[in-house]
Amino acid sequence: MKRTHRHLSPVKATRLSFVLAALCAALLGGSSFAAQTSQTSFVPFQQFLNGIKTANAATFVAQKSSVVKDSASFVEMQQYILNLYKDAHVSQSFLLGNDNFDCIPMQEQPSVRRQGLAHIATPPPVSASLPQAFSSGGAHNQATQISSQLAENDRVDALGHSRVCADGTIPMRRVTLEELSRFPNLQAYFQKTPDSAEHLPNNKIIPPQVYSHKYSYTLQSVTNIGQTDTINLWSPYVNTAAGQIFSLAQSWTVGTNGTTQTAEVGWQNYPGKYGDERSRLFIYWTADGYQNTGCYNLDCSAFVQTNGNWYFGGPFSNYSVVGGAQYEFLAQYYLYQGNWWLGLGSPGNVTWVGYYPASLYGSGPMSTSAQLLEFGSESVGSTSWPPEGSGYFASAGWSYAAYQRELWYWAPGGAAYWLSLTAEEPSPSCYTIAGPYWGGYTPPSNYWGVYFYFGGPGGTTC
Fold first, then answer.
1. Is 424 considered catalytic here?
2. Catalytic option among 264, 328, 388, 406
3. Does residue 425 have an active-site annotation?
């Protein structure tokens, strides 16, 4: 790994698509949550359930917005939602972005009920190990570190409903028939992309598919029990009319011994799933190489949420602005006492939000450790691909290109080490990597450590 530190100066774009991508990022990225929120109807929880029970398959299948394969597929979706919320008691609901959220008692969330968990696991200690290879390093550019998705003035919706769930409950983004009917069947809804042909960035064997994945990323093969990543937050425009599907930035914690298994976290702009053009906080997992297991957020009975201050599938109050204010959040997975715990927040202020039980991975590699770590961006399209990161190439540097920083991992036994990453640019005409670099690590003022810039404008020649 190249351990030099330098500030990268912005470069002028010469491609029209580059300029348009940057303009979209500037327009979308800097808007407040309140300014971006579209009009959504508030539906009380019981009214929502009654609507699911009485929904008519023929009506939904015939809708222009629906791509449900047939009535049988619709009925399967309908029954899935009813089972998902079976025995759940909701006393508080609210609007957030395009969605209704419900405050679900922690013990009644789908993962606890359907996995038959007798109790909620104990989280790791508040203080986490720090990497062993420290360096003095100079002062570095600073972003606003997000300790919650919502700013203080966004904690009540437009109708006066509190968006803060009571102690002992967690916010669950409502799974609706309107959302499910944007997919042909239930299996397609659970997949990471619509055509169920996902693959990891370093997987060179791409199955036949309608859509193609494009990446800019870094990686290291190392046996580990988790990693830390601070992700620069953007909301790049996804042109669905041009066949673009989504754009995201994330970390992949991966088991590779035998079948591919993952625990993933980051932000994602996916209009086909979420119904708008705002990046959302997301998690994803698979235990069998994206074949028959996996889902986003709390959409299936996998992730156990234990803290109500983060909203999976929900938008953020603020996004980074090209040449202006920068926002970021820390995300880490850590295998602790048989569970892959997810921590979110900022350096020195991390909250353990919940976990994937390692039992989800059966006897696979992630039942005991992971063997590969990847960090970067991913986009999906058919003949056109959306911007990744900010929409600027990585060489544009601070406040123009997106970045990920403070990248380190836990080895089995708990010691923490800086990552030694290799950069990959599979589609350099559309997306690039600058770095990885060493930015120093002198808390509390400098948490950059190992970092890199990533992204680009996308286009039709990726």
1. no
2. 264
3. no
